[in-house]
Structure formats: structure tokens, C-alpha cells
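[09:14] KT: can someone run the structure on this one? pasting the chain below
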Amino acid sequence: MGGVPLGRIAGFSVRANWSVFVILLLFTWSLASTLPNAAPGYSIAAYWLAGTCGALVLLSSLLAHELTHAVFARRAGVGVLDVTLWLFGGVTRLAGEASTPKAALRIAASGPLTSMILGVAFATAAYALRVAGGPHIVVGVGWWLAGVNLLLSMFNLLPGAPLDGGRVLKAILWQRCGDPIRAGIGAARAGRVLAVILIGLGLVASLAGAPVGGVWLVLVAWFIYGASLDEEAQLNAQQAIADVCVRDVMTAYPNIAPSDVTIEDFIQRYLLGDRHSAYPVADGHGEIIGLITLAELRRVAPGRRGVTLVRDAATPMPQVVTAEPAEKLTGLLERLRTRGTSRALIFDTGQLVGIVTASDLNRLIDVYQLATNRPLRHSPAR
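[09:31] RB: done, C-alpha cells below
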């Protein structure tokens, strides 16, 4: 999804997609335009200042929602890749699945529960401030934050993927049928049904005189529909390759790059005329010490290629994803996703026997499409 890095919070990488600025403006405008009715008598500048502050607090609430997902995922032993705020709220990318339905349920339900608690807290604070005779404009912001958080909580609990309610539904179905993939497919299909209903409600709202809310609801529903399709396609692919082993995908005995030649010599003597984009790197004793890719070669300035050795530009072995030929491909794909790469070296009893690259994974997708006549909407390779 990309975005601007905001740093790390509670150990998690946090980003903000460019679309966050759109919802920041929308939240600010929404609050600034409703405050004059709730708290009359203030200047326009005061309303816009209060709107901006309220919008920033709401974004913080959305971040708290996603970070709660991340914390519960970490407690369940599931890796967290990052947390990103964007147009429709936030996304917490996980590196795998929970090991049990109960853990999956806790991860899914934690976010809406956080929004609900925040909504109650804002409502309590607004009520207490009103009783104490606090500024009406601050009370109005508090009630607005309470209402939006409670609304987001209830909306997120609607039973359809990719909403949190869809994850809750998946956990319940998983508990009943014992198959997380079947449960996920059921939740994804429920998401499409939900999207169609929301599109209908959005069109009705537009015709009834609420065009902004109606169009926004249609946009959200369209996102849910597309995301549920993607999710079902990924689950079908996962189901199709459940019995595929790494040896069935890997390129056996790949060409090896010597560690003690310069980048320039390696390009001239090995790369030119070759079709590969990744090479295991071996030292003078034949031991594999790393992996070199075209991307890493490009990072070496042309003026330094004649003096930089391959081993100095290569990824060292401790940072390279490895696997065994008999291992299930699904396990390797999860590790590749966690490490943010699409390449792995394959070893059998300590000896290099193959490599898995993006080309190998894309070929698997092509074979799947030919065998099933069902295109995949997302590739596991990058």
C-alpha cells in the first residue's frame, strides 16, 4: 500500500498512505460544518480549529484500533508486517494466520472493541464536561468523536471480509468446520453479499437527498467487494497448492556467482547472455555465503563496479530465506511474505540444490490458471 513512514509505535512500523490527507480534510470539514449547530456563538476560525483538532484525534483513534489488532496478533504468535492508515481507515498486515480459531477471534474482535471503548470514553468525557460547564465547542467535539467511534465499531463488525466482522465470522466458521480456508472463503463470499447490500443502501441514500453519504457508502462497498474477491482468489490458490512441495517449484542447481570477482567482471562474464536475476554466492571453498540479485547490483554506482566485489554487494546468508526440497510450499511462501522478498535458497543436507525466485512462483500461477481456468487476482511473487 506504501505511504509515509511515521516511525514505530509499540514496536510496530506505522505508515500513512497519501489518502489519509483526504480523510483528514473530510473529517475536518464534517466537524467544522456541524459544530455551529451544536455550539453556536463561536468564530469561523474557532470552528475550523476545533474541526482540525477533532479530526487528528479521530485519526489517532483509528490508529489505536489498528495497533490493538497488532498487539493481539503478536500475543498470538503472529508476525506483524506494518500498520498503515489510509482512505478507509487502517490496515494491519499480518505475516501469517492465527493458529487457532479462538486466537483469530481475539485478533479480529479487538479492534472494534477498542473503537467501542473509545466511543464510550469520549461520550463520558463530553457529558462530564457539559455538566461541569465546560466550553460548548469542546463538548461538541467530544460528542462527535464518541458518535464516529461507535459508528465505526458497529460498521466494522458487519459480517463480511475484509471487515473485522468478516474475520470474526471466519473464526466462528473455522471453529465449526475445522478448516480455516473453507471458513475464509465463506467469509469472503459473505463480504460480497454485504457489499451489494451496501451499494443498494448508498444508492437509496443518494436518491433520498444525502448524496455525499450515499456516494461514500458506495465507494466503501465497492472496496469491500473487490477486496473480498481478492481474498477468495488467494484462498483458492492456497487450497490448490496445499500439497505442492518446494522441489516442485524450485529451479534446480542454479548458476553460482564467485564471491571474489568485481561487480564489473561478474556482469561481463556471467550476466550478459544469462536469463537469471538472482545468484547464490560462493566463496573460494565452495561454501554458499550469500545471494546477489540484479536489484543489489543496480545499487552499486557504475563508478564503483570495478572495485566492489560481489560478496560486498550480496545479501549475507543469515538474511537469506532458506528451505528444504520436501517442505510444503505454503510454509515457504509465508516466510517469504514475512521477510518481504520472493527469493529463497534450497538446501538438502547442507548442500545447495535449488533456488526459488519470482519467475518460479509466477510459473506456478500460470500452471494453476491453465489447470483450473480460474485467474488469480494477486500473485505471491513481487
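[09:33] KT: thanks! Residues 44-75 form the longest helix (32 residues).
[09:34] RB: yep, looked fine to me
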